[in-house]
Amino acid sequence: MELYSWKNQCMHLYKDGVGYMKTLERHLTKPSRFDNKLLFNMAVMSYEKLFAALLAHYEMEALHHTPVAMYKETQEMDKNLPPEMLETAKLIQSFESICIFDGKGYTTPSDKELFQIIQGLMHIRDYIASTIDLNGNAV
């Protein structure tokens, strides 16, 4: 049995991303015991794992780590990416700062913004689930 395959990597990353989503989705109907900062960090991890899974589906490693750059990188392989995914990427990225010169630092989304991020992630998860075959067959 092959230890590493793109299909295995894709499925592993997808399952990791969905694992974070379970807590996030529950937060939409029942407030979580976690604060927005932790929930946002979970959302970022979910986003990264889901997009890395989609790239693995196309036998590519993620070369970028910011949400918008990951979207654009994936769009090169998947021309059908919905533009709403880019809006979710921009919203997530608006709370991150990776450069000391922009002076913004990291901020935490409001409840409304966090809900928008989670709903966007649900659409991303569903799109990726429909793109990669969760049963391991070629799509």
From the structure above, extract its key features:
about 140 residues, Four Helix Bundle (Hemerythrin (Met), subunit A)
Describe this structure in words.
The chain is mostly helical and 139 residues long. The chain has a single domain (6-131), classed as Up-down Bundle (Four Helix Bundle (Hemerythrin (Met), subunit A)), CATH 1.20.120.330. Helix content is 64%, strand content 0%. The protein has 5 helices and no strands. The chain has helices spanning 6-29, 36-57, 67-77, 83-93, 111-131. The longest helix has 24 residues, at 6-29. The chain is globular, with a radius of gyration of 15 Å.
Give a short summary of the structure.
The chain contains 5 helices and no strands.
Q: Could you tell me the mean pLDDT?
A: 89
By secondary-structure content and strand pairing, the structural class works out as mainly alpha
Largest sheet: none
User: Under the CATH scheme, which class?
Assistant: Mainly Alpha
* Helix-strand sequence: HHHHH
Question: What's the alpha carbon Rg, rounded to whole Å?
Answer: 15 Å
Report low-confidence residues grouped into runs of 5 or more: none
